[in-house]
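ok trying this again, last paste got cut off
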Amino acid sequence: MKFKKYIGIVLIACMLISAMFIATACDGGNTEENKKTQDKEKDTVTEKATDDKPSENNTQQPTEQPSEDNTQQPTEKPTDNVTDGEKIDYSLEFVDYKGNTVTSMSGVMSLSNGQIAPIANGKASFKAEKGDYSATFELSDHDYKCDDFCDFTEEITSVRIPVYNKVTDTNKDFYKSENGAGYVHPGATYVKLRGVTSDAYEGERSYFIFRPTRDGIYNISVISDNFVEVGYYGGTVINVYDNSLIPAVDNVVEYSIRKSSITTGDSAVCVIGLTTDGSAKDCVLVIERVADMPLSTEDLEWIVPTIEKELTPIKLSYHNKNVVLTNLDLMSPDLKLVMNESDGYYHLGTADGPIVYVRLSATIDYFGFDPETNAPNLASFTTIIDTSRMCRYFFDEEGNPIRKESYNQIILAYKEMLDASGVYPLDEMLEYVIKQHGEYVGWWDSESSNNLYSMYGMSQPPVENAWLFAACIVTVEDKGTDGESALLVNPEGATSLVGASDTFYYNVNEKSNSISVELTVNAAEGISVEYDGQVYTADENGVITVTIGETRTFCIKGSADMSEPVEVVYTYAYI
């Protein structure tokens, strides 16, 4: 029994050893064929297991730190709601119709990914991962018309938003339209057109008013995908024409305005009309200054030369003096004028010769008189400036105007200094005025139709003398120097006396010899009145009072020690 028991134990041990041997033999026979067979069998098992039901152990787990390619995974600490990864630049720019940045645009841009970017000086930018984003704008500038949104894409990372002006200050009094007409300005303006919302207004013209603040040449055109015709319909909001006054070339109107037409007040306007066939409900109206206006004399401001010296009143005419004006001999080759630096006047022949005067308000008789009216053929200078202008226009070598001078104010300033003689000593300013105006209008130009000498049949003097037709020499002759030549005077008058040689006789205007006259003379020291054999002198107030009786003649005289002229004023009344 024990043997049998041992035999069983041995058999079991042999079986175990045999099994171990087989297993070792199978594993230890590491041939290439056996390895391929084992791999094939393993793959078959794996594929079958996958097809049946995937195990959680077969799902790929995320790494602790995402790789560069794992862009869809959020970072551990998000930044601006954008995951880490490759970021690119996106940009926005507001531009005018020429593509220039509109630097006045400012505000905020909000993006669909939660980012916010400031808009400053017409631009904005942000960084984000490559992708598509929509954006909206909140703008602080309300003077312009533009879109308030845009879209960015992977391909479109830079967006430009066109910006247009708005129509402003609608003129409700514009009579051509019941809705008035809005004002537009240089640049591109977004405008709405009539004639598209109702058949009743189809094709009706839309008016707009352009008030230029700068002279120049402007092109007026439209930007539209549909038919819009542009035209110029007048220069005021009252007189508006039915047809365009300026033909459009390629639907562009060239409008010109000079500087003289622009004022600070009610300056000229340009009425623009846009006509549509009903296919356009809006468009962009473009007004572009393309060139300067060629300079015109009417655009220049008048320049008035400055009188450097202080003018002195001239007193030549008194009722007891006869002022005689003698024209110069312009045909004489010996005619010579010399400036006297001490008085600032021209003198004849030498600096100490007679003062040469100019007829300003006095009659210029050199060219004679009209036989029918007896009026002088050439009006006086003061008369000329009353009806027109003494002036000169100056041009460069190419004929372009460079300045213009007016002499009216100068003549008026000298006129204030004149007495009844109407003349003033010739100085450099009067010389300049006469020469400049005369040369400009051709008064002594032998080839001009305005040549005064040819016009009135006069001989043409040497050119250096021709401008002196209004010049003269003044001589003063005393009147009433004795009783027989006594001057008949009215109740008020004046005279000028200097020294004992000045003695003038006067006759009171007779009303009745039986009526006495009280004579009052206001005079400085050295003046006396002789009447009926008696001499009357001034009282402490400088007044001489004389009763004139039946004898009507009296005499006013100056003393021997007088060296300067004294003006004497007298009045009388019947008593």
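PB: full thing came through this time. The mean pLDDT is 83.
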